[in-house]
Design goal:
18% of the residues lie in helices and 36% in strands. The chain is an alpha+beta fold and 419 residues long. The strands form five sheets. Strands 13, 16, 17, 18, 19, 20, 21, 22, 23 and 24 form a ten-stranded antiparallel beta sheet that branches. A six-stranded antiparallel beta sheet has the order 12-11-10-9-8-25, sandwiched between helices. Strands 3-4-5-6-7 form a five-stranded antiparallel beta sheet.
Length: 419
């Protein structure tokens, strides 16, 4: 009987264990995903995550003071900032259309701490006034990409570049290089070119203009003209363009003070003007017509002797080039240089306007030789300084691979990137 009792007890225990085992639950540990930190955003040398960021564009009528006031900076602080940085950055010269950024604190005050002004695609100015006031001019990292292009002229150089979807700045630079060897207002259908140049990019994708033309080939009226960029003065960093025989392509004077303009009135001492009753009114200058605001260029190196406004001349600039030559540029909308300033050939000295006695937008270009006004197109003007004989071996070594590359470029309709 006892054995039966033990057996029954054992069965109860076994049944109970099986039931507990059957009812046991599997507990899965809860997986808590960690929040991923936002990606770090860097711009203009600052971690933008650390600030409340406001990006905007300077609007007409905006001032630095008004922008700062709208972001919680007092007039007294604005005065302190502008006075501290005046020798580095004139806040009165911020221009409409330029982008800017304000970095503000992330606390409840949201007080402005940094102001960034984008001067152009590459250059920008930073005013940091978190602790002390610090202003710095900086540049965005720029990547240079080597390119080649070629084309055949059908009408004008600019139209050909537009048809081929090429950067028009390359055409402008080519017109500078060949300013005295080719008249770009008289190109012929069938003229053709090849060019090697470097293009600038910001963040690898944003075009930022042309860096330089390394070498080019232009065939005008069947005559081929090579141009190779070469530094002829390593101390002062002076660069000129030479043909394959080391002849300098630049002359002492440019043909015209305005790119791609037309001559609306030539030098003429017997000119009669209907407005003045067909009386003879000598015209001692050459008029180049162009839209208002078009840059006016110094036609040669020299010192600015006058930059003022006077009577019928309107706003004008006069340059002394050497003991023999002076040039003058009349009717500007505004000047870009001051008396006493040294300018190089091709520097912008002012902008086309209609100040003084003028019936349309143009620049009247006047040319003096030995104190007498003359027609620049009838002068045997001097060539630029030739390449020194001591530099010719280095020049020949420099241009050899460039000429090989130029000669291998086919006249294709699209630019190719050099790999």
């Amino acid at each position: 009987m006892k054995q039966v009792g033990y057996l029954l007890l054992l069965m109860v225990v076994v049944f109970s264990c099986k039931k507990e085992k059957k009812e046991a639950k599997i507990v899965v540990p809860e997986i808590v995903e960690e929040e991923k930190a936002p990606p770090v955003i860097m711009e203009y040398g600052y971690v933008l995550n650390d600030f409340n960021v406001v990006k905007d564009t300077i609007k007409s009528g905006d001032s630095f003071g008004a922008i700062m006031d709208s972001h919680g900076i007092t007039r007294a602080k604005v005065f302190e900032i502008t006075n501290k940085i005046k020798d580095t950055f004139n806040v009165a010269r911020i221009r409409a259309g330029k982008p800017y950024m304000v970095l503000k604190s992330k606390d409840t005050t949201e007080k402005a701490q940094v102001f960034v002004y984008q001067n152009n695609k590459i250059d920008y100015t930073v005013i940091d006034f978190r602790d002390s006031i610090i202003v710095s001019k900086r540049k965005k990292p720029v990547k240079l990409v080597e390119r080649t292009a070629s084309g055949v002229i059908n009408s004008s150089l600019m139209q050909t570049f537009d048809d081929l979807d090429l950067n028009f700045l390359v055409a402008y630079n080519m017109s500078d290089i060949y300013a005295w060897t080719i008249d770009f207002t008289r190109l012929q259908a069938g003229d053709r070119f090849k060019v090697m140049y470097t293009e600038k990019f910001i963040d690898d994708t944003i075009p930022a203009g042309i860096d330089k033309i390394t070498a080019s080939y232009f065939e005008h009226r069947g005559k081929p003209i090579y141009a190779f960029r070469f530094e002829n003065d390593t101390v002062n960093g002076v660069v000129d363009y030479y043909d394959e025989d080391a002849n300098n392509l630049r002359r002492a004077f440019l043909r015209a003070p305005v790119k791609f303009s037309r001559i609306s009135s030539r030098y003429n001492l017997r000119r009669r003007i209907k407005y003045y009753g067909n009386k003879i009114r000598p015209h001692r200058g050459t008029d180049f017509a162009a839209p208002i605001g078009t840059p006016i260029l110094a036609t040669a190196d020299g010192i600015v002797t006058k930059s003022e406004r006077r009577g019928g001349n309107g706003k004008y600039v006069k340059i002394r080039h050497n003991a023999s030559y002076d040039t003058q540029y009349l009717h500007m909308s505004r000047q870009a240089v001051k008396a006493g300033q040294f300018v190089r050939q091709g520097d912008v000295i002012g902008y086309i306007g209609m100040t003084g006695n003028t019936s349309g937008p143009h620049v009247c270009y006047r040319f003096w030789k030995n104190g007498k006004e003359v027609d620049p197109f009838k002068q045997d003007l001097p060539a630029s300084k030739p390449l020194a004989d001591s530099l010719k071996p280095a020049f020949n070594n420099h241009i050899e691979p460039l000429k090989t590359t130029l000669d291998s470029i086919l006249f294709k309709p699209k630019p190719q990137e050099i790999l």
